[in-house]
Design brief:
The protein is α/β, with parallel strands linked by helices. The protein is built from nine helices and eight strands. The chain has one domain (about 1-269): Rossmann fold (3-Layer(aba) Sandwich), CATH 3.40.50.1820. An eight-stranded mixed sheet has the order 1-2-4-3-5-6-7-8, sandwiched between helices.
Length: about 270
């Protein structure tokens, strides 16, 4: 079921797969939160296995994919809460990549009763000072000022898609499609409270997967995040950069399914 979900001063596109036949409708749904380098279609190749076992909810953050651009200040965590409320979801297992990982962590700290577990894939986190290279940020700003969208795409491909061949049309399409969202969201997005120094407060089952070929700053930050989160299982994806759902979709699917079951077993006891 596709629909536009109302959020504060706006709306977002969302899809609810519904409960698969024979599945336990009482089990919490799996919510997929996309990265900032792609919209929710980045999960498409993984959906058949995920929706065969779980009710899966995914949505496009404001300005991404099929969601309209924001017209007022908004918070990614507040939008996630609005989506869960719209679908009547009291508790959910969250799988988030990069920007989506930061949103998942934010909700788990803000309202832990609503989160049964976390699967974090090359996650970002608010309040981390060393997550993004200052040189990268400065170069994006310079290219944006010059109106050089092709240059921004090439930069992201070089820095964040190092596991590719350089001629990687699928990833390139994802990146090009979201660049307008970066600028549309920037003017209105309000960063959620810093979470990096609060990771030790997380009290939900968690697995964190890093891409060994991701930016060195992201790899180091992900290693430190896994160290700070109590009981977090760290998984290293040898053939992934910042696009594990494209590079190693089966491994990421396995990771999410296993993490969901581990969280479910813990909740049952």
């Amino acid at each position: 079921m596709d629909l536009m979900v109302p959020v504060k001063d706006g709306e977002v596109w969302a899809r609810d797969s519904g409960v698969p036949g024979g599945a336990d409708g009482e089990r919490p749904p799996l919510v997929l939160l996309h990265p900032g380098v792609a919209d929710s279609r980045v999960w498409d190749g993984m959906l058949p296995r995920l929706t065969a076992r779980h009710r899966v909810i995914r949505y496009d953050a404001r300005a991404y994919g099929r969601s309209p651009e924001p017209t007022a200040a908004y918070s990614l965590v507040e939008d996630l809460v609005a989506v869960l409320d719209h679908f009547g979801v009291a508790r959910a297992f969250l799988a988030g990549s990069s920007m989506g990982g930061a949103t998942a962590i934010g909700l788990a700290l803000h309202d832990p009763a609503r989160v049964t577990g976390l699967a974090l894939v090359v996650p970002a986190v608010t309040g981390c000072p060393d997550l993004v290279s200052p040189d990268f940020t400065a170069e994006v700003g310079r290219l944006a000022g010059a109106g050089d969208i092709d240059g921004i795409v090439a930069l992201v491909m070089r820095v964040s898609a190092a596991a590719g061949t350089g001629d990687d049309p699928r990833v390139r399409r994802y990146v090009r499609a979201v660049i307008p969202a970066w600028f549309a969201a920037h003017a209105h997005s309000v960063e959620d409270p810093p979470a990096y120094d609060r990771l030790g407060e997380l009290d939900v089952p968690c697995v964190l997967a890093l891409g060994e070929r991701d930016q060195p700053e992201v790899v180091r930050a992900n290693e430190e995040m896994a160290r700070r989160i109590p009981g977090c299982r760290l998984v290293r994806l040898a053939d992934s950069d910042h696009f594990p759902m494209v590079r190693e979709p089966e491994a990421v699917t396995d990771l999410i399914l296993d993490a969901y079951e581990s969280a479910h077993r813990r909740a049952a006891h």
